[in-house]
Design brief:
It is built from 9 helices and 7 strands; from the N terminus they run H-H-H-E-H-E-H-E-H-E-H-E-H-E-E-H. It is of the alpha/beta class and 240 residues long. It has a single domain, classed as 3-Layer(aba) Sandwich (Rossmann fold). The longest helix is centred in the first third of the chain and has 18 residues. The radius of gyration is 17 Å and the shape is globular. Bound molecules: S-adenosyl-L-homocysteine. The site of S-adenosyl-L-homocysteine (SAH) has 17 residues, from strand 2 and helix 6.
Length: 240
């Protein structure tokens, strides 16, 4: 197995030690990602060290925002190649995970890699959040909703908060100076039944520009949300 020192040391700073089985899963995940990336566009980051830091470890930083993930029901909205959902699932095999992805080719990769890694309790849903969030088996059914690099926050909360049960959390993984983006989203967070709880910094070497926007679900999302596909991005609510 190739050396995963960057992931191992980063994970230990987060308070986790990865066992040999988990390291093997991360190693297989890396190799499948690189292999499939030659045929379908999954990531621009391919260097082993960079993938360990900017994909795997970055995904695990979600643990800074939540204590219990081990038996939670999670959905990763716009998961792409499985980020942040799959690294978290490797760390917490007991979680129940839905990976939502609009692109069928990426979903084919996800199904392949889940099988290859032998992961249980992971469901791949191909579709757009604007539609899937209206399906009763998914609406307001998740303890935790995650999303990384999908849309600006004002758009994103319309796509994600409808999945979140009352009392659950939505965690958006963001980068850099995000105060203006958070301010622009203030109104739509309320409209979706959410409440901004915290913007947390990730203080890890190589990931110091990362931020976790933590939003609580305090009341039901009105049934008309999310609006039709494309509308939340084209006309974000509450943005002047
Ligand atoms: N979360 C991954 C992928 C980011 S790219 C990562 O951080 O690496 C954004 C992904 O979201 C793309 O794969 C795109 O197909 C998907 N996506 C964008 N809008 C979506 C929507 N409305 N519903 C479902 N998936 C969406």
């Amino acid at each position: 197995m190739s050396k995963m020192e960057y992931l191992i040391s980063g994970a230990s700073k987060l308070g986790f030690s990865l066992n040999p089985g988990q390291l093997e899963q991360f190693d297989s995940y890396y190799r499948e990602l690189i292999d499939w990336n030659q045929r379908i566009n999954l990531t621009s980051i391919t260097d082993f060290k960079e993938v360990q830091l900017r994909h795997f470890l970055d995904s695990l930083t979600v643990t800074l925002a939540v204590k219990r993930l081990s038996d939670a029901r999670l959905i990763d909205v716009g998961t792409g190649a499985g980020l942040p959902g799959l690294p978290l699932k490797i760390l917490f095999p007991g979680m129940r995970l839905v990976l939502l992805e609009a692109t069928a080719k990426k979903a084919a990769f996800l199904i392949h890699v889940i099988e290859r890694l032998g992961l249980d309790d992971v469901e791949v849903v191909v579709g757009r959040a604007e539609e899937v969030a209206h399906q009763s088996q998914h609406r307001e059914k998740f303890d935790m909703v995650l999303s990384r690099a999908v849309a600006q926050l004002a758009t994103l909360v319309e796509l994600t908060l409808p999945f979140c049960r009352i009392g659950g959390r939505f965690i958006a993984q963001k980068k850099g100076f995000i105060d203006p983006e958070v301010s622009r989203a203030a109104k739509v967070i309320g409209l979706m039944g959410g409440k901004l709880l915290e913007v947390k910094r990730v203080n890890l070497e190589g990931l110091a520009d990362r931020r976790l926007v933590i939003i609580g679900k305090v009341s039901p999302t009105p049934e008309k949300y999310p609006r039709r596909p494309g509308i939340p991005a084209k006309r974000p609510l509450g943005v002047a």
